[in-house]
Design brief:
Layout lengths: L1 E8 L9 H17 L6 E8 L3 E8 L4 H14 L1 H6 L10 E2 L10
Antiparallel strand pairs: 1-3, 1-4, 2-3
């Protein structure tokens, strides 16, 4: 499994716990799941506030780091219009590997 971090530019949910921040992050996670296909290899998604908006951590079943990046690009490309409708945009650069880039085994 590979972890890819995708930074979304847009409104930053209010820091700290609360229904407003949790709701905004849950909507983004649900939106990604709604556009995921089997070929994307999505196993889990985690959304976290960042300075520029929101960071999405995509946990992907992939044979290599390069394959995971391609899968993440394809997934985000398919979700681009709905993300935009919620005020978010993917930056022009590609998603970056997440904090854990070692092969964690395939499932």
């Amino acid at each position: 499994m590979r972890v890819i971090r995708a930074s979304l530019d847009g409104p930053r949910p209010r820091p700290g716990p609360g229904p407003e921040a949790e709701g905004a992050l849950a909507v983004l996670s649900d939106l990604i799941w709604a556009h995921a296909r089997a070929a994307h290899g999505l196993e889990h998604v985690r959304a976290r506030p960042s300075d520029a908006g929101v960071d999405l951590y995509l946990f992907l079943r992939a044979a290599s780091e390069a394959a995971a990046l391609d899968q993440a690009r394809a997934l985000l490309s398919g979700a681009r219009a709905p993300l935009r409708a919620h005020g978010y945009a993917t930056p022009p650069q590609a998603p970056a590997p997440g904090p854990r880039t070692k092969d964690q085994g395939t499932q």
